[in-house]
């Protein structure tokens, strides 16, 4: 159950953070979108590793 709660909270956190990043990316040039996506992926990899370990 604890594992499920962690996964659920990570999903909610992921959705919130992607929304924040999207707002920032839209305000910038469209050409920077790919960089924003890479930053999101890298950020979540770090966050998930920090949560699990």
TrEMBL record:
Signal peptide from the UniProt entry: 1-25
Alphabetically ordered keywords of this record: Signal
Name assigned to this protein: Transmembrane protein
Lineage: Eukaryota, Sar, Alveolata, Ciliophora, Intramacronucleata
């Amino acid at each position: 159950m604890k594992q499920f709660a962690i996964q659920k909270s990570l999903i909610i956190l992921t959705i919130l953070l992607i929304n924040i990043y999207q707002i920032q990316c839209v305000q910038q040039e469209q050409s920077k979108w790919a960089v924003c996506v890479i930053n999101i992926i890298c950020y979540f990899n770090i966050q998930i590793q920090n949560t699990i370990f």
